[in-house]
What we know:
The protein is mostly helical. It has one domain. The protein has helices spanning 5-21, 25-50, 81-102, 111-147. The protein is flat.
Amino acid sequence: MAETLGSLCDKLTIVKLKQYHSEDENRLQSLHQQEGQLVEEIEEFISDAINGLIPLNKLTFRSNKVYKQQGNEISEIKGSIGTIFAKLADTNCLLWHEQEKVYDFEKVVDVSAKDAVVKQLAILNLQRTKCIDEIDNSFLELIEFKSGSKK
């Protein structure tokens, strides 16, 4: 996948989740380096986009999810880039904890409980993808407006 602001933000939230859930010093040191690299990459990406060094068509990379929409509806995700980034972070936290339930799935006897977890994982993954796409869309609109190609 090509890197976009949304994909970089997604990666950063996952690194932060790993930091929160880790106690191993070597892992934490590695994650701290990853965090620094991602922050630097985000800042460079934004700067390059503002300065016209990234073509507008490279600011987005649609996920183009193909799924049955009926029964898998997710709420509209709108707002500022910061608001959507916060929603992405929240979604990734929920996704992390839902995924934790799968690690002991064989112990879950109730089929409806398993079905609920699988359904929630699907919905949260769709919401995560939508947040990434919306960060990219909002950033593209901001850059287009700044560059004068969209008024």
